[in-house]
Amino acid sequence: MKIQTLLKSIFGVVVTVLLLPIMSCDSANNLSALVGHWLHESGGTEKTPQDMELFKDGTGMCDGNSILWKIDNKRLTIQSLSLGVVSDYELSDYRLTLTDNGKKITYLNINNENYQKSLQKGTFTDSRDGKKYGTVKINTQTWFAENLNYETAGGKCYDNNSANCDKYGRLYNWETAMKACPNGWHLPSNEEWQTLVNFTGGNKIAGKKFKARSGWNSNKGKSSNGTDIFGFSALPGGYSASDGLFYTAGYRGLWWTTPKIEKGRGALSSPSEYGNYLRIFYDNEYIGYRYSEDLFCSIRCLQD
User: Fold this and answer.
1) What letter would DSSP give residue 48?
2) Is 20 exposed, middle or buried (0-12, 13-18, 19+ CB in 10 A)?
3) Which residue from 56, 94, 263, 299 has the highest number of Cβ atoms inside 10 Å of its Cβ?
């Protein structure tokens, strides 16, 4: 059975036995080298396993479901109680490539120091106030790696607390958002946001890759933090409504965008030219758009 088909089949199986004999390791079977958190190189798709975490005791998780694994003679076995696959594997620094019938799937160890160094990170200093921002290049786009925190009329801190501006960036009204980014940067359009979303796996699953690896509140006892595989590091800064109150910091992030048209057609939950803000929730991986001119939301600036 092919790797993709089998691993997706594993996901529906509840594993109750977590003991698996592990072969003794030599230089050709370095078990410890495969221990880690592995993510699909391109962020994955709905039909491809995205997220594997392999533990040193031979247990693991694959897209949130339990698996067992071992290596022997440069062959990697991944199995549940009823299914199993044996695949050739190749390990090169932070890359793990599985090969089955000539088809290759490559994963990245996001905990590896060299992987972290490989992210195209930089810094930008806003000449208006001297604030320094992290930046990251993802595919062909260069983004702020944190929310804008430029103090201006039309912007405010969550709960009117400056510590929240330091943590989440500032919240801005719709009119201010159109012109808040510094020279050389701009508020991204729907098309530009969607380019990023598509590259990171699509609207149904990209939220997990957008989210920072800490800072998101748990969902029914389960972590709702992301993998942050591309260094975008989205945090749940919440929003402020027309009543002047503040909502959902720690649970939801909202970011302004520029739609093709000025007015929308009401609340939308799918990618649309009519939305003017993008949102990510704590309890799922979905990214969607809605429309309102009455909110204060976060800003991510995109390089011109």
Assistant:
1) S
2) middle
3) 299
Cα–Cα distance for residue pair 99/74, rounded to 1 Å? 12
Extract the tokens encoding 38. 């592995």
Helix intervals (H) in the chain: 3-10, 31-34, 113-118, 162-168, 174-177, 190-199, 206-210
* Distance spanning both ends of the chain, measured CA to CA: 46
* Per-residue DSSP letter, 134: E
The pTM (predicted TM-score) of the whole model is 0.75
Residues 92 and 85: beta-carbon distance below 8 Å: no
Domains of the chain, by residue range, sit at: 3-115, 119-303
Strands across the sheet with 155-156, in order? 155-156, 171-173, 296-297, 239-240, 246-247
Q: pLDDT tens across 201-244, in order?
A: 888 888 988 999 899 998 777 778 988 888 999 999 999 999 99
The residue assigned the tokens 């994963």 is: 107
Tens digits of per-residue pLDDT, 38-72? 888 765 555 667 778 899 999 988 877 788 998 88
The one-letter code for the residue type at 180 is A
